[in-house]
Design goal:
The chain has helices at 2-9, 23-45, 56-67, 69-87, 95-114, 120-170. Helix 3 runs antiparallel to helix 4. The chain is mainly alpha-helical.
Length: 171
């Protein structure tokens, strides 16, 4: 019972907010992006988890919790884009939705933990709720008529990305 009270209600500083004034901040962000791309790739390559386990989200949330909203935002934006360029995943059809969802996860996790000084559990729940709402809104926007514009952009990105992947793997 004491453990639950500690997790839910007691406040203690956890994060070191990155201000991006030195190279260390950029290196830490790069490491989180690298982990967010490589760990899901390893899980899916060696079939260590099913299709519903999404380890990409873990590192985005951790970046927001540990290093503030700026790190969460940057890791959330860069992770799905880098993953798509390197491995082709997530699929192009869901790339905008995943990018928005992960960006909101990192941003809100960092803001709730840093600015509002909430406990990790409440920051996590708030970030997950906000990320899912953003994901659903993106899905609704695509289904309400933005599909043609998104498909046009997706087709152009697919041609560019396929060229990058073919060039990467043939050299």
């Amino acid at each position: 019972m004491i453990v639950y009270r500690t997790i839910l209600f007691q406040s203690r500083p956890l994060n070191e907010v990155l201000k991006y004034t030195d190279i260390r901040s950029y290196l830490i962000t790069f490491v989180f992006i690298l982990l967010s791309v490589t760990v899901p790739w390893i899980f899916h390559q060696f079939q260590l988890a099913g299709a519903t386990f999404l380890p990409m989200h873990i590192f985005v949330l951790l970046a927001g919790f540990l290093f503030g909203w700026r790190a969460g935002l940057i890791v959330g934006i860069c992770t799905p884009l880098a993953s798509y360029v390197i491995s082709g995943m997530p699929l192009l059809a869901v790339l905008p939705q995943v990018t928005i969802e992960l960006t909101v996860y990192g941003l809100i996790a960092g803001l709730l933990n840093e600015k509002f000084d909430l406990r990790i559990i409440w920051s996590l729940l708030g970030a997950m709720l906000a990320g899912r709402i953003a994901s659903v809104n993106t899905d609704v926007m695509q289904s309400l008529g933005f599909v043609e514009a998104v498909d046009n952009i997706n087709a152009r990105l697919n041609i560019c990305s396929t060229g990058l992947q073919i060039h990467y793997f043939t050299t």
